[in-house]
Amino acid sequence: MKKRSRNDLRVVRHERLRRTLAGTAEKPRMAVFHSLKYVYVQIIDDDLGHTLAAASSLEKSVREGLKGTCNVEAAKAVGKLAAERARAKGIEAVVFDRGGHEYHGKVKALADAAREAGLKF
């Protein structure tokens, strides 16, 4: 029997979470993903299948003041930027989708920064 990789197990957890999570126009889904190099977040309206706002540590404006692009500090910066962009589009509340990752470290830092910037979830 083939051993599953960590990413395969994360995908299974994410699929299980997505059965219960869905974003609407009133309360879109805030989807978080992090690779070994970068942190990404999207605000998604699942009814239309549209991304309403996005931010990542790939962006030059985010990378400038940071030591790394996939650490807790980068996650905080991305969470704050995503919340600011969502609020600019009139989005006050979201459904948080951690993407199968543990709610710990980078994911928790991103969520806390988004809350501090004014998003409700």
Shape type: globular
By CATH, the topology is Nucleotidyltransferase, domain 5
CATH architecture: 2-Layer Sandwich
Total discrete domains: 1
Cross-sheet strand order for the largest sheet: 3-2-1-4
User: Helical content, roughly?
Assistant: 25-40%
Counting H and I runs of at least 4 residues, what is the number of helices?
A: 4
The total beta strand count reads 4
Largest sheet: 4 strands, mixed
Low-confidence stretches: none
Rg measurement, Å? 14 Å
Series of H and E elements: HEEEHHEH
Category from helices, strands and their pairing: alpha+beta
Measured by DSSP, the beta-strand proportion falls in 15-25%
* CATH class type: Alpha Beta
What distance lies between the first and last C-alpha atoms, to the nearest angstrom?
40 Å
Average pLDDT level = 95
